[in-house]
Amino acid sequence: MSLSFATEDAAAAIAELDAAAGAIRPILVLLFVSAAPRLQAIADGLLPRLPEGCRLIACSSMGEFHHGGYLHDRSVAVMFPQVSFRASVVELSDVSRLPVTEWMDRLRQAARDFSADPARNSFGILLTQSDAGQEEVVIATLDASLPWLNVVGGTVGDMGDSSAACMVLDRQLLRDSALLCMVETDLHVREVVFSHFTPTSQRMVVTATNDSDRNIMRLNDEPAAEEYARLIGVPRASLSPMLFARYPLLLHIADQYHVRAIAGVRADGGLELMSAVEPGSLLTLGEASDDIFDDMDAAFSELPQLPELVLGFDCILRRLAVEKSRHASELAELFGRYRIVGFNTLGEQHGGLHVNQTFVGLAFMPPGGKAADGDDRAA
Predict the structure, then answer these.
(1) Are the C-beta atoms of 191 and 361 separated by less than 8 Å?
(2) How far is CA 28 from the centre of its chain?
(3) Is residue 378 within 8 Å of 364, Cβ to Cβ?
(4) Rg over CA atoms, the chain
(5) Nearest to 4 by CA among 306, 369, 282, 336
(6) How far is CA 246 from CA 198, 230, 261, 288, 334, in A?
(7) pLDDT in 10s for each residue of the chain, 379 residues
(8) Which strand ranges, in their side-by-side order, compose the sheet holding 309-315?
(9) Given CB 3.0 to 4.6 Å as the disulfide criterion, which of 74, 76, 207, 372 pairs with 6?
(10) CA distances from 55 to 29, 173, 331 (A)
C-alpha cells in the first residue's frame, strides 16, 4: 500500500501513517519527503508506532509521484506488509573513502544472514547520497558481491537545497552513506526501465577528463563544450539546460544505450556530467523523443498483468521534460492505471550501472492474475 499527503504538519503526517501501518502491519516502510527537516520529524515520530521488527528508510527527494502523477511539496510512503514480504537493510558507510573490501564482506555476510528463499522472488532497493559522486563504485560493488540480486534505486536529492539531501535509517540520520535493502516476496516482481531518447548518427570519443571522470575536458580532441555545441548545431554561447536535456550523451554497453546527462559547462570549457565516463569511451549523441507519453505507456504495457504497485525512481530531468509536454492529463491517468509511486532522483541505478534521465522501477504483480483494486497485499 502507498500513501501521499500534503502537509507541513509532521504530527498530521505521523497520524495518517500510523493508521495505515495499523491496518497493513508492514515489515518495511519507505518514506520520500521533499524537505529534509520535515523528513526527520516524520521519521522520528513514526518509528515508535511501527510493528516490532519493521524497518524505516526515509530520504529527501527532488519531488515525488503517486497514482495521480507528479506531486509538489508532498510526502509519499510505501509500506510492505509482513504477510507478503521479508526485508533486511545494510548500510554502506564512508562512501567518499570507498572501503570496497569492507563493503563486500558486509554485503556477503548480510546475504548469508538474510538467507533468501529460492522459491520466492528477491530484489534489492538502493538509495545513495550524491555528495561523494561515487554511485558507479557503489552499484558495481553490489553487483560483484551479490550477482544474483536484482538491484534498482536512485540518488537522493532535496527540492529546496541539493546539498541538504539526507537519508534516515530508523532514527539514525546518515551522511556519506548508501543503503541497500534486500527484500523477499511471494509476489511476482518485474523490472521496468526506459528512457525517452534515441541514438543519432553523431559519434564522439572522450579524449580527456580531469581528476574526476564526471568532467569531460576534450571530445574528439577538441574542447568539450565547443565540440558538443558543434555536434548539436548551435553556438557554444547558446548551450543551456534545455539543450542538455534534449541532447544527452549516450554510452553503449551490452547492446543498450545508457544516458550520461550533462549538468553544465565548466568555466574551463569542459562539460560537467552527472555520471562518469572514462577517457577513450565512444559516445553517441542522443535526441529526446517528442512523445514522452507514448514511450512511457509502451514500457508499462509490456507487463504481463496489471501491477498492484510500481515502485519507481525517476530522474528529475525526465520530470522537467514531462511537465513541459502536452500530455499532463494522460500521464496522470497512466500513473493511476499502473499504480506508480516513488521519487525523483539525481541519478538512477540498475543492472550494475549508474545512469541518468531514466525511469527505473519494480512492478509487483499477484501470483494468480489481474490485480484487484484496493488489495492490501501490495507494497
Answers:
(1) yes
(2) 18
(3) yes
(4) 20
(5) 336
(6) 11, 15, 10, 5, 23
(7) 577 666 667 888 899 999 999 999 999 999 999 877 888 899 999 999 999 999 999 999 989 999 888 887 788 999 999 999 999 999 999 999 999 999 999 999 999 999 999 999 999 999 998 777 899 999 999 999 999 999 999 999 887 666 678 899 998 999 899 999 999 999 999 999 998 899 999 999 999 999 777 999 999 999 999 999 999 999 999 999 889 989 999 999 888 899 999 999 999 999 999 999 999 999 999 998 877 888 889 999 999 999 999 999 999 988 888 887 777 788 889 999 999 999 999 999 999 999 999 999 999 999 865 544 443 333 4
(8) 69-71, 64-66, 340-345, 309-315, 359-365, 188-194
(9) 74
(10) 6, 14, 32
Report whether 94 contacts 203 (CB < 8 A): no
Residue 320 grid coordinates: 522537467
Give the alpha-carbon dihedral of 27, 136, 118, 190, to 10 degrees. Answer: 80
C-alpha of 34 from chain center: 14
Dig out the grid coordinates for 232 from the structure: 548539436
CA 103 to CA 95: how far, in whole Å? Answer: 10
Its pTM stands at: 0.91
Largest CA distance in the chain: 61
* Matching residue, cell 556519506: 176
CA atoms in the 13 A half-sphere facing the CB of 233? 5
